[in-house]
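Comment thread on ticket #2218

A.B. wrote:
> Attaching the input chain for the structure job we discussed in standup.
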Amino acid sequence: MRKNITFAIFMLVLSVNANAFSLNAVQKVTDAMNSNMQFLSLNEFQELQRFPEQLAHFKSVEIISANGNHIADIEVLAQLSALRHLSMNYTFVKDVTPLQNLLKLERLDLKGTHVTDASPLAKLTNLLTLSLYANDISDFSALKSLTQLESLNIGYTKGTDISFLASLKNLRSLNLIWMPINDYSVLTQLTQLEHLDVSYANFNDFSIILKLPNLKSLSIEMGKVLDAKVLEPMIGKGLKVNFR
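C.D. wrote:
> Ran it. Output below, let me know if you need it in another format.
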């Protein structure tokens, strides 16, 4: 990880109410942009549907937060090679192909978007944190190349096969809530795992949990209280079980 980084924090805090300006959202963002900025927040612009094309010229941007708006077209991001953190939760993003060559990305948050294909993310091998929670993805096999991942959230998706996790030995946090998974045996290979959520995801084999020596927290549904009794030795050593 990079050390002693001093960020030139640049946040857009313009009001977007009808009385503030007559300009549309894209124009407001464009006018407020600074060529030396490293952090760009667009969270205030909920009606924004696309990034300003001028953003392509701001090569120093390392962090973009654009949550809860209407952005669908992210083509301009392909030119921001310095980008390290990108958060676009609950937006209209569907195609993540423009991100495939952003090789410095360390964190990518795409919760509640409309992504159906995760394969363009296969080259982002510096990713440490990835969230694809609540997307329409059924095949996660492309993620097997992301061997540096420490945190992965693919809960509330359509995936049934999690065998790709076998190559993600560095995982410490894994969220699989509400997934129709058939086979959990691969979890026994994730010996660095500290936090696991398998609530409402067809999880029944608690002997697997006994093989995770570093696990600190487990989330499961309330109906599994009796089944979880087998974990009492681990609970006695500090394992926290959260019943949903």
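A.B. wrote:
> Thanks. Noting for the ticket: The chain has two domains: 1-115, 123-244.
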